[in-house]
Amino acid sequence: QYNLFRGETQFNFPKEPETVTFETPFGKFGIFTCFDILFHDPAVVLVNELQVDTVLFPTAWMNVLPFLTAVEFHSAWAMGMGVNLLSANTHNIGMAMTGGGIFTPEGPVAYHYDTETEEGHLLIAELSSRPHLSPMYTLAVNWSLYATSIKKIPEEQNTFTGAVRRDVFTFTELTHKTGNHTVCQKDLCCHLSYRMSDKSKEEVYVLGAFDGLHGSVIKYHWQICTLLKCKSTDQKSCGQPVETAQTKFDMFSLSGTFGTSYVFPEVLYSGIQLAPGEFEVLRDGRLKSKHSLSKPLLTVTLFGRHYEKDPPHPLRTSI
């Protein structure tokens, strides 16, 4: 592992990233480990420069709502990067480690998420060995095209701030069953069109934007546009982890003025369930529902990584 998580910094690590690949009759494979998936080296290098088809991904991933639950983010990464990701997660519910899957550019083929038992699960699925050659392969997306080309929508006046862990988001509440909203932070403006089928009076949803550094020991730059359910009707709870919801949406369309081409689309349903086949990414950068959603919604997120804005790695600069 090249990038160590904050609790792992006592371990040794390579001075240079090691890019591990091997050719098979089933396509070109690459390997990286756990926290590496959030960084340019070696994760993006394997896909963009070494052109792997499938990534083998051993991990001990601690689930963190609302954006970094294992199956949620790993599926989004496979879609955003256009490769297969075979994610094998440690299963230790006492440490909130669970969730593995077989993920493709079109979405999850098979996944398992279990916070109740210590039972493991063997996943078997059939998938394209060379997804770039598949007729279903998603063409390049310009993640800021739609958001920067639409008519200027006045930024919301009734915004408020809320913390997702330590990250301070700018939020605006969705007060009606249908609407269009814009919320901005720094260089990022997020646009949302939506229609709820039946809004629960006991539930609050917000549109949020974050543009800045995340992390404690190792900091890295995120740009995030998100539609999310708050933990309670108190606005102060917006951004806190929540696992269940009752409100269904007839439609949503989320976009943002991203300064990066590395954006990962997430849709998470009540009960920490993914939504395969129920949303699509348009080439102009919109994340849209295909039809009325089948389950109550927790989050819809465009998770951007602005690698060029990452500060120097504190451990490596001290070598």
From TrEMBL:
One of its GO terms (molecular function) is pantetheine hydrolase activity. One of its GO terms (biological process) is pantothenate metabolic process. It comes from the Eukaryota. Residues 1-129 form the CN hydrolase domain. It holds the Pfam family Vanin_C. Coiled coil: none annotated. Transmembrane segments: none annotated. SUPFAM superfamilies: Carbon-nitrogen hydrolase (SSF56317). Keywords: Hydrolase. Belongs to the carbon-nitrogen hydrolase superfamily. BTD/VNN family. PANTHER family: BIOTINIDASE-RELATED, CN HYDROLASE DOMAIN-CONTAINING PROTEIN-RELATED. This is VNN2 protein. It comes from Nothoprocta pentlandii.
